[in-house]
Amino acid sequence: MTFTVKPVSTRDELEDAFDIRRKVFIKEQHVTEELEFDGKDDGSKHFLALKDDKPIGTFRFVFLKGTAKLQRFAVLKRYRKSGVGRLMMESALEAIKHEGCEEVVLDAQIQVRAFYEKFGFVAEGEEFKDAGIPHMKMRLISIP
Q: What CATH code is assigned to 4-140?
């Protein structure tokens, strides 16, 4: 399969990203709409993963005091384990580095912690629940 990842540049593309988040986080994982749409979308940089121009994944990041916070990393269920997540993470790290930032943090769902560790993220602190789902804060000190 061939995938591409691109920055969101139109309102329609942003709605595509929101639709993916609704399918993954709200419908599949039962996160409430109020928690998912947290008011931070306007200050974030959003990206879409595409297969044949069809949106299949998304993520966003924000900058907080010199650190990028990667959030809302989601892939539609039928495309998981296809390699698109790897391409999305590589694209995220490249975009963050291009912005002049080297340090990245994220709150990983426990079931995908190993995915982030493959990119050099290290767990910090204790496990916690976010929207009732076990998470772990993770940090990448330097983007390769």
A: 3.40.630.30
